[in-house]
Write a structure and sequence with these properties.
two-stranded antiparallel sheet; elongated
Length: 137
């Protein structure tokens, strides 16, 4: 009975760990977006709002709904939208405005030249069979 309980706990831990590990790359991609320009939170489309770091479709829709009821006079009024806390506001505030045109765009990252790899040790370049003979020598 203990073995079954231990196996069940181990399986549960593996499932949780793999789900967490798969979610990490998506968040890493979002946080590494290079943006330039500004978003007018009174006129921007939902698609433009989603470009902001930490803003998904649901929060973008809430922003659109909020401004339909009452347009934003200052960017800090965005804190009244559910899902926009201090941390998210600090991340997106450089890209926000309440007047003018929306000019926010993702900057294209130039691919940098690959660094030269260091020279490998001569034994590391040998075939696996040759490495076996070295281990027994």
């Amino acid at each position: 009975m203990r073995k079954i309980a231990f196996a069940a706990m181990t399986l549960t831990a593996l499932v949780l760990f793999s789900a967490t590990a798969q979610a990490a790359p998506r968040n890493a991609e979002q946080s590494q977006k290079a943006l330039s320009g500004v978003v007018n939170i009174n006129t921007a489309s939902e698609a433009q709002l989603v470009l902001l770091p930490g803003v998904g479709k649901a929060i973008a829709q809430r922003i659109v709904d909020h401004r339909a009821r009452q347009p934003f006079q200052r960017i800090d009024e965005l804190l009244a939208v559910k899902g926009i806390g201090q941390r998210t506001f600090q991340r997106i505030s450089p890209y926000l405005t309440v007047s003018g045109a929306t000019t926010l765009a993702e900057e294209r990252q130039e691919k940098t030249a690959r660094r030269a790899l260091p020279e490998r040790h001569p034994e590391a370049q040998m075939a696996p069979a040759a490495l076996d003979t070295l281990a027994y020598a």
